[in-house]
């Protein structure tokens, strides 16, 4: 009897342990679901992020256009194409477009505020749900989809983007893993020569990227490139300045390039903290806004005197 009681007690303990483990797994799953819904960029960041110069403040503010949203199913791990655009697109000429390349764990649906901000300045933006964007293929497929939207009008169906996308003025931006994705998109993919401006935000350090089998070759970049990292503790490991300097130095002098360090944030916040200058970069190279160019180039380029930035290098 005592032996049977011991067996019963043992099975009770096993049962209780199994129930506890089940609750833990369900709790972790719930936490993961909750975390997946938390945006990586606050909706009101354009009003809260500090700026250190008039031009940075000007381009961090929302633009003059109300913004609309369109999405379409996509194959494979992309899941869907997420497009933001000026609501008055039907009254506008062809518009430049900017492709977003996702960082690790940060799908397009986690930073709509960043895309809305750029769209409010008169850009079409496109992102996907790709989680492994380092090879630039999600960017390539996004460009192909933009071409499809611009060139084909299916009878009986409305296509608000038909004839509205300027495929000669395409930009690209990526954060963290997405920085490696930007390099590969503008160097290795079929439409690599299409990009006129690129932005790399806290791009993954070269040796770390190689260890993860995220191969890239920045010496092949022939696109005007802005690179910004932070001096935060996380970026000191993921995106340290010395690694970015090496990347910057390998980029040909036949294009314009700028390197800078933001000093009041860390890795995750770089997705949106530098957005004033990111927008200025695209305004200059994709929309011909000469005032925006003064943020980076010329005798009194603002970014050099901005107290929120340091270790700035620029070549035009």
Explain what you see.
Helices cover 40% and strands 20% of the residues. With 316 residues, the chain is an alpha/beta fold. It has two domains: 1-38; 42-315, Alpha/Beta hydrolase fold, catalytic domain (Rossmann fold, 3-Layer(aba) Sandwich). A nine-stranded mixed beta sheet has the order 1-2-4-3-5-6-7-8-9, with helices on both faces. Helix 6 (177-187) links the parallel strand 5 and strand 6. Helix 3 (54-60) packs across helix 11 (275-287). The radius of gyration is 23 Å and the shape is globular.
Largest sheet: 9 strands, mixed
Q: In total, how many domains does the architecture comprise?
A: 2
Task: Name the helix and strand elements from N-terminus to C-terminus, one letter apiece.
Answer: HHHEEEHEHEHEHEHHEHHHHE
Number of H- or I-type helical stretches: 13
The tally of strands reads: 9
What name is given to the CATH topology of the largest domain? Rossmann fold
